[in-house]
Amino acid sequence: MYNFVEVAIASPLKNTFTYRIPEGQNLLPGMRVKVHFKNRIETGYTISLHNNPSDEFEIKPIEEILDEEPIFDERLIELAEYVSSFYLGSIGEVLNKALPSGNFSKKKKFLDSSSHNRREVLLTQKQQKIFDDINATNSGAHLIFGVTGSGKTEIYIKLAQSCIERGRSVIFLVPEISLSTHIFHRIADVFGDSMILYHSGVSDTQRFENWMKFKKGEAKIAVGTRSAIFLQPPELGLIIIDEEQDYSYKEHSSPRYNARRIAFYRSIKENALLVLGSATPSIETMYAAQKGTIKFHHLKERYGDAILPDVEIVKLDSGTVISSRLRAYTDKTIKRGNQAVFLLNRRGFAPFVMCRDCGTVFECPNCSIGLNYHKNKGLLCHYCGFSKPLPDTCPECDGLSIVKLGAGTQKIEDLIFREFPDYRVFRLDQDSAKKKGTASLLSNSMRNGEVDILLGTQMVAKGFDFQKVTLAAVLLADIGVNIPDFRANEKIFSMLYQLAGRAGRGSEPGVVIIQTLNENLPIFKFLKEHDYLGFYRWELKIRESLEYPPFSRLARIVLRGKSEETISLCAETLASEFKRIIDEQNLKVQMLGPAQAPLFKVGKNFRYHIILKSKNLKELRELIAEGIKIQLKQTVYLEIDIDPVEML
Q: What pLDDT is recorded for position 462?
C-alpha cells in the first residue's frame, strides 16, 4: 500500500512533486489529479507511487482524483519521460500535449467497428516488391523514396492491412490537416469505421471519442498530424510518416519535439514497424538511409505510366509578376478544360539583397547564410551577428542593379486576382485552411471542375492528387532561397519539387513554370532534371564543409521579452556562461551569437538567439542544462530547441 505519489504539473517546471494520497483512495500512475500548487489549484498527472517522502518539505494531500482508471499507460509515461529528457522540457507538458480535449468523465459505449474492406488495393510489380520486403521484417525503420505520383500511399495501405490482420494497430502521420482529410477519404474506402481522424481540426468531442476508440482497440488505424504520435492503442504495430521531410512534424512550443524522432523511439521500444515516405526526403533521413541505419526502397516511376512534367525556368522582367510565358500556358491550360496550381511562397519574410545583373546574393562570410537588409544596420547575419554596410555596386560585377527582395509579397496575391479576372480562383493558405470544411470544399470543387486556378502557399505543394491539373507554377522562386537558415536550399528545393509533382498526374502530360529573377541558381538544374539525388549530393557537400546536420547536432536558445535592452544583456550573460562551461570542460561545442533573431520582434517581444553546434548530442544537452541554471531576469522567457528545423 502506497501513501505518496509523484505528480507532474503541466508547466515548464521539470521536476515532479510529492503529494500524499488521501486515506482509502485508489490511485494509480497515469491518472489526473487536482493538487494545491503555488497558491492555486492545478491539474497534474500521477507518475509513480512510493513510501519514501522527503523530510525537507510539508507534503500536501491530493485535492481531488479526476479519473476512475489511468488515462495513460506505462508506455506513455515512459515515453513522456524520454521526450522531456531529450528536449529539456517537463513531463507534465508532454502528457498535456498527448491528451485530447474533451470530457473524460463520460461513460460512452462504442459500437463494434471491425474493419470491412470496401476497396481492393492492387499493387504494381515494383510496389509489391517493396511491400514484400518491408512486410517480411515486421520491425525496423524503412524509407520509401519515390517520385511524386509513384503510388507510395497504396503501399502504406497494404502494409496497414497486413498489420491489422495480425491484430495490431497503425498510426498514420501526415503533415497538414488539409492533407489528412484528403488521405482520409482514400483509405476510409478500405478500412471503413475502423479508422479515426485525429488532429486539431476535429471537434473536441469527436477528438476525445476518437482517442478513446483507438485506446480501447475499437479503431485500428489513426490518421492524424504530429500529436497523433502520442496515441496509445493496445498494441502498436506500424507507424507511417508520409512526407517525412515536412517541418510540420516539429512542435513549436515547449517541449519542442519532433514526431519523427518520437516515432523512431516508439518503434524500437514497442517493436513496431516504422515506414517513412517522401519524394524529397530530408537530408538527415537520406543520409541515414545511405549509411544503412534506415532500410532504403526506391520507386523510380509514376504510377500508371504517367510521365513527369517538363520544367521551365522563366526569368522575370523588372516589375513583372506574371510572365508572358506563364500567361500563355495558363490560358492554354484552362481553355483545354484543365486546371492550374500557382504557388505563392511567403517564406521570404525579411528583405535579402541580390544583384539583378549577375545573380549574386550577399552572404555572411562566416555562416554561408543570406544576409538580411535592415534600414539602420545595413546587411546583417542573424546567426553570428556579422554586419556590413550595403554597397553601392555589386562586388562581383560592379553592377548597379542591387535589389532587396522578400518584403511586400502579400501584394502579389491581389495582382493574381486582377491578372486573371475571368478565371475561377480558389485561395488556400493557413488562414483559409483553418475554416471548417475548407479541405472538403477544395477537393470537391477541384474534382468537379469548378476551379480554374488553385492559388496558395506551401500547402498547395503537398500531397494533393487532382487529375485535371496540368500546369504548376511558382510565381517568384527567389523568395525563400536566402532566408537566414542553413536548410534554405533544402526547403525551397523540396517545396518546388513537390509542387512540380502536382502537374500531369492524370492522362495528360504536365508543365511546370518556375519564375525567377536569377535563373542561374544551382537548385534549378536539379529541378529541371527531377534529380533529387543530385541535389542531395550537392547539398551534403555544403553541409559537411560547414559541419551542419547531419554532420553535427544543433540547439537553439531563444530569449524573448518586452525590453530590448534586458533581452540583449541576458543573451550576453547566458552566452558568457555557455563559453565558461565550454572552456572549463573542454567541450567540443561551437557557439554562434548571441544575435538578434531573424524575426526580431514578435507580439511586442524582442528576441535574441544563441546557436550551439556539436557532434556530441549528449555534451550539447548537458551544456544547456547546466548553462540555463544561471539566474536571468524574471521578465525574460527562455525557449530551448533541440534539433531545430526553423531558425527564424
A: 73
What are the CA-CA distances from residue 601 to residues 162, 255, 489, 607, 648 (Å)? 50, 22, 25, 6, 11
Q: Is the peptide bond before 255 cis (omega within 30 degrees of 0)?
A: yes
Residue 231: pLDDT band (50, 70, 90) is very high
**Angle formed by the axes of helices 177-191 and 152-165, to 10°?**
50
Strands 4-9 and 40-50: antiparallel
For the record, the C-alpha cell of 511 comes out as 508543365
CA atoms of 185 and 173, how far apart (whole Å): 15
Q: At 569, phi and psi to the nearest 5?
A: -65, -45
Encoded amino acid at 55, one letter: D
Question: Quick check: bond before 550 cis, omega within 30?
Answer: yes
Cell of 38: 503555488
Residue 509 near residue 309, CB atoms below 8 Å: yes
Dist CA 240 CA 175 (whole Å): 12
- Angle CA(181)–CA(184)–CA(185) in degrees, nearest 5? 95
pTM of the model: 0.87
Residue found under cell 521484417:
137
Contact yes or no for 380/596 (Cβ under 8 A): yes
β-partners of residue 459 are none
State residue 223's pLDDT score.
93
Q: Supply angle C-alpha 606, 612, 615, rounded to 5.
A: 160
Q: Please report, as a single letter, which amino acid is at residue 379.
A: L
pLDDT-derived band at 269 (thresholds 50, 70, 90) equals very high
CA distances to 403, 463, 466, 495, 515 from 460, rounded to whole Å, are 28, 8, 11, 9, 17
Read off the pLDDT of residues 309-339 as tens digits, 9 standing for 90 and up: 899 999 987 667 789 999 999 999 999 999 9
Helix axes 488-500, 532-546, angle to 10 degrees: 170
Task: Tell me the CA distances in angstroms from 142 to 18, 151, 238, 265, 393, one per residue in order.
Answer: 42, 16, 11, 14, 51
Element (H, E) at 446: helix 438-447
Give the angle 242-493-279 at the CA atoms, nearest 5°: 30
Cell numbers placing 340: 492550374
Instruction: Please tell me the predicted confidence (pLDDT) of residue 319.
Output: 64
Widest distance between CA atoms in the chain: 84
d(CA 467, CA 276): 25
Q: How far is the C-alpha of 614 from the C-alpha of 551, rounded, in Å?
A: 9
The answer to which of 114-128, 161-175, 211-225, 329-343 has the lowest mean pLDDT is 114-128
Q: What angle do CA 185, 182, 450 make, to 5 degrees?
A: 105
Query: If phi over 0 gives left and psi between -120 and 50 gives alpha, with beta otherwise, what is residue 212?
Result: alpha
CB 577 within 8 A of CB 562: no
Position 640 pLDDT exceeds 60? yes
Is pLDDT of 350 > 60?
A: no
User: 262, 331, 363, 290: which is closest to 550 by C-alpha?
Assistant: 290
| Whole-number Å distance between alpha carbons of 576 and 373 | 28
Residues 6+ apart with CB under 8 A from 137: 273, 295
Give percent of the chain with pLDDT exceeding 70: 91
117: confidence class by pLDDT, cuts 50, 70, 90: low
Parallel/antiparallel/unpaired status of strands 553-561 and 637-642: antiparallel
